[in-house]
Write a structure and sequence with these properties.
Layout lengths: L4 H13 L2 H7 L1 E3 L2 E3 L6 H9 L5 H8 L3 E3 L2 H5 L5 E3 L3 H14 L7 E4 L12 H4 L5 H16 L5 E2 L23 H16 L13 E4 L18 H8 L1 H8 L4 E4 L3 E2 L2 E2 L4 H11 L5 E3 L7 H5 L5 H11 L4 E2 L3 H11 L5 H17 L10 H6 L6 H14 L1 E5 L12 E4 L25 H7 L4 E4 L10 H10 L2 E7 L20 H14 L3 E7 L7 H6 L2 E4 L7 H9 L62 E10 L3 E10 L5 E11 L10 E10 L4 E9 L5 E2 L5 E2 L3 E8 L5 E8 L2
Parallel strand pairs: 1-4, 1-12, 4-5, 5-6, 7-8, 8-11, 14-15, 14-16, 16-17, 17-18
Antiparallel strand pairs: 2-3, 9-10, 13-18, 19-20, 20-23, 21-22, 21-26, 24-25, 26-27
Helix pairs in contact: 1-16, 2-15, 8-9, 8-18, 9-11, 14-15, 18-23, 19-23, 20-21
The structure holds alpha-D-glucopyranose (GLC).
Length: about 725
């Protein structure tokens, strides 16, 4: 995020004219507060409904008396720097107060959670990352940026780039999976898509990297739980996507809730000042996560709100999301010297710089034309990109007997409540979609021309209907079962100790299996979920498994395209799947240990479960097959040149994601058995063979030690290439740096 000299001068001039109160105002992010004729705080009301003290109906009745406070008076007084919301008309109203009625006319920056699309919701990140397609990552983000600006949003609380390795954590759905390298390339592409099209202020937004940092390493996969790790682990696994995104020019970051090695990230000078703003050079600002400053008292690192506010400001946290602690305490803190004016000016300068960079001083309002653009359905080209993303995110896990693709002649019995849902295809953290844009799997199959009948015989909650199951198995030529998770079962505050299929879905599948077998018919199982699931039973018993995730508005058309063979699936897993819960966390890039897991007793294994992932990172099948041969790795001056032959050995065109991994066999710290270091999507005609060339920069063959230093160490390296992280060719090479 670079400013012109003129813009920098305007920021300094503004800063020099601001009062202390106005400076603190810029550091205050408000969201519309719920106020109304009830005598408990809104948060308490939510608790009362959640724990059953009041029913949903009572809650709705109370809420009907509620109004929203948009803090107009504070905006007029220059005490609000940023607001949250996705309503362009309201945004213009509030912006008008800020620009035309406050003393200095500093525009608001409007922020919102646009994690995987605003109106055009595309696949959740864990799915999209599995496309291994940077150009796609960038294009979907660009659509999100344009739609955001047309809704008055100049600041997306995205991308979420937490490397996550424990699928018990519900937010694994929001991020790009378990691998630091893939997450880094995903992060770079998302920054380019969100920020780089500056041909018009309507085409770009400020990104917000979250959640900074290592929030996903929460112990036991329990959201908000403590995180503790070595400095080398922090630098080698969790920081890389943030460092990469800052190098791409990310305009802001969001401090995460977790304490990291005993210091909450909201008040952590090491991560905020020394790394993010110092070593990485981020010139934008850092915002807390919701209520994050106040929670530092609960963490036990701050005596009270005032202490939490002082520690946050001094640690480099520039903007307070939703606690009013900066608003209430920073004035006295500066006057008493607990927080210096330099600290304050640095925070405000960063915030003003992002607003200047966004062009908000020249174009603070959303045009009527832009608002009208989204009055109806989403633009066709946006829907097409969402469809492309959805198709590329689908992963074929098992296809015994080549049951898929289905033929047009086959009459489909579609079973499972999720199959007809428009709501449950959207995925976590999408709040602005409309049903008119959504295509359920049932609709998608009908759109494809398939003959399909739907039987709502059970889902993630509630009972299963054996009669419907029997009817479905009796009437169709093939049964397609859609099972998985509701949107509410993943995302924030959705950690689970049991990551098997929820409810009675396994029972439903077992009954379907029995009935289809008895009728001599095939069963196809489509998974619609937000996190990797423990699918040991399913993999053992079910002939066909398709991982379809929560793919957004075009889910139905994408699933239909894959099931009917119009689309040959090319998606891969960005996260490993366990067989059973007890294997969590499970990931491919692990150290070898002194006793690598094997069938021998005294090795790193379980008595009652496999030690390998059920489906490993990078795994995904196709309707064709690919063979790898002739892997070569040769040293060039500043890189290794890796070449591998890939052949399409099947009878139809297909796309393969060729993956390049590396192992530093012996080093001053134990290194993982594999680390992803490159990938390439390759489309091959049936029978076609090609040499795929990949480059591994020598500079990328190092690692961070426990002093936080990046080191390159001479020695033996193993280079791997294959279609997933397990089944690879291997070549050894000695490298001297
Ligand atoms: C939430 C989330 C964060 C989100 C923020 C604002 O608690 O942790 O991802 O951006 O609040 O909605």
């Amino acid at each position: 995020m670079k400013l012109t000299e003129q813009q920098k001068n305007r920021v300094e001039d503004l800063l020099s004219r601001m009062t202390l109160e106005e400076k603190i105002g810029q550091m205050n992010l408000e969201s519309p507060s719920i106020v109304g004729g009830f005598d408990v705080p809104f948060e308490e009301l939510i608790e009362m409904m959640t724990d059953g003290r009041i029913s949903q109906e009572e809650f709705q009745k109370i809420m009907s008396t509620a109004t929203r406070d948009f803090h107009e008076e504070d905006i007029r007084a220059g005490l609000v720097g940023a607001m949250m919301g996705d309503d362009p008309v309201k945004a213009n109203e509030l912006q008008k107060i800020a620009v035309e009625e406050s003393r200095l006319g500093i525009p608001l920056i409007m922020g919102f959670d646009v994690i995987h699309g605003l109106r055009t919701v595309y696949p959740i990140a864990i799915a999209e990352a599995g496309a291994f397609d940077e150009d796609l990552f960038e294009r979907t983000a660009r659509i999100a940026a344009r739609e955001s600006r047309a809704h008055g949003i100049g600041w997306n609380f995205a991308p979420m780039i937490d490397v996550a390795r424990d699928c018990r954590w519900g937010r694994v759905s929001e991020g790009p999976g378990e691998d630091a390298y893939l997450a880094s390339r995903f992060a770079r592409a998302k920054i380019r898509g969100l920020q780089n099209d500056r041909t018009s202020p309507e085409n770009y937004v400020a990104a917000c990297l979250k959640h900074y940092v290592a929030y996903s390493a929460c112990e036991s996969g329990r959201d908000y739980n403590t995180t503790s790790m070595s400095i080398s682990q922090l630098h080698n696994v969790y920081l890389p996507p943030f460092k990469a995104a800052v190098e791409e020019g990310a305009a802001s970051a969001m401090a995460s809730f977790n304490d990291l090695n005993g210091v909450p990230c909201t008040v952590n000078p090491y991560t905020l000042r020394e790394l993010l703003k110092g070593a990485y050079g981020m010139d934008g600002f850092v915002v807390s996560d919701a209520n994050g400053i106040k929670e530092c008292v609960t963490h036990g690192i701050a005596e009270d709100d005032r202490d939490a506010g002082i520690q946050s400001a001094n640690a480099g946290l520039d903007m307070d999301m939703g606690t009013h602690i900066y608003k209430d305490y920073l004035k006295e803190a500066v006057e008493s010297g607990a927080v210096s004016m330099e600290v304050l000016d640095d925070a405000v300068r960063r915030i003003l710089s992002v607003k200047m960079w966004l062009g908000l001083f020249e174009n603070p309002y959303v045009s009527e034309e832009a608002i009208a653009r989204y009055a109806g359905k989403i633009p066709a080209e946006h829907a097409e990109t969402a469809l492309e993303a959805a198709k590329k995110s689908i992963v074929l896990l098992k296809n015994e007997g080549n049951v898929l693709p289905l033929s047009k002649k086959q009459k489909i019995s579609l079973v499972g409540n999720l199959a007809a849902s428009e709501e449950e295809i959207i995925g976590a953290w999408a709040m602005s979609w409309r049903n008119e844009d959504c295509v359920s799997i049932l609709e998608g199959l009908k759109n494809s021309g398939a003959e399909v009948s739907y039987y709502p015989c059970g889902g993630p909650e509630g009972e299963i209907n054996a009669d419907e199951i029997a009817r479905a198995c009796g009437e169709g030529d093939v049964v397609v079962a859609v099972v998985g998770e509701l949107v509410s079962m993943s995302g924030e505050a959705s950690s689970k100790a049991n990551v098997e299929l929820p409810g009675k879905q396994r029972e439903m599948l077992s009954l379907l299996l029995e009935k289809t077998r008895a009728a001599g018919k095939k069963l196809v199982t489509v998974l619609m979920n937000g996190r990797p699931l423990a699918l040991g039973w399913e993999e053992e018993h079910l002939p066909v498994l398709v991982e379809a995730w929560h793919l957004g508005v075009q889910m139905g058309n994408a699933v239909a395209a894959v099931l009917t063979g119009e689309e040959n699936p090319s998606g891969k897993l960005a996260s490993s799947f366990p067989s059973v819960n007890g294997q969590c966390p499970i990931y491919y890039s692990h150290p070898n240990t002194g006793r690598p897991g094997s069938k021998s007793k005294f090795t790193s294994r379980y008595l009652d479960a496999p030690f390998d992932a059920l489906f490993p990172f990078g795994y995904g099948l196709s309707y064709t097959t690919f063979a790898y041969s002739e892997l070569k790795a040769e040293e060039d001056k500043d890189c290794l040149r890796v070449a591998v032959r890939v052949k399409n050995t099947g009878d139809r065109k297909g796309t393969e994601v060729v993956q390049l991994y590396m192992q530093d066999v012996t080093a001053s710290l134990v290194r993982p058995v594999k680390e992803l270091k490159g990938f390439s999507r390759v489309e091959l005609e049936a029978g076609e063979e090609r040499t795929v060339n990949l480059e591994l920069k020598k500079q990328d063959m190092g690692f961070y030690n426990n002093q936080g230093e990046y080191v390159l160490e001479d020695g033996l390296f193993r280079i791997y290439a294959g279609g997933n992280s397990r089944d690879c060719l291997c070549a050894e090479i000695r490298v001297n740096f």
